[in-house]
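[recover] target loaded
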């Protein structure tokens, strides 16, 4: 009798462990897409401007500008946005986005210190 009980406990334990391992991984990768876009950001104000505005683009979940490389990393819900649209959004804020040049009018409206060609400061 005691052996049977031990066996049942052992079986239950193994089953429990199997359930833990069988738990599906976070379905993160098939729901979200991440892109990196090189921008012409100059300073901390540019960083704030880009991060705050791009955060409101459709489907965007995370956005962060690398201080050193000025590369904007954007995570968005798959199918809700795409890299070309995000590049256009960056351009409309007055910044270059990879090969897409900044919208000239938007660029000229930026504070002088944030305009292209300034040394990072
Ligand atoms: Cu700036």
């Amino acid at each position: 009798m005691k052996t049977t009980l031990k066996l049942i406990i052992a079986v239950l334990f193994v089953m429990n462990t199997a359930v833990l391992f069988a738990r599906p991984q976070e379905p993160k990768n098939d729901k979200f897409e991440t892109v990196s876009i090189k921008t012409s950001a100059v300073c901390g104000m540019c960083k704030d401007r880009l991060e705050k505005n791009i955060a409101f683009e459709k489907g965007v979940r995370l956005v962060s500008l690398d201080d050193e490389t000025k590369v904007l990393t954007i995570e968005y819900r798959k199918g809700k946005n795409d890299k070309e649209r995000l590049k256009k959004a960056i351009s409309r804020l007055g910044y270059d986005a990879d090969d897409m040049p900044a919208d000239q009018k938007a660029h000229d409206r930026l504070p002088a210190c944030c305009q292209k060609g300034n040394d990072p400061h």
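[recover] notes: DSSP finds four helices and three strands in the chain.
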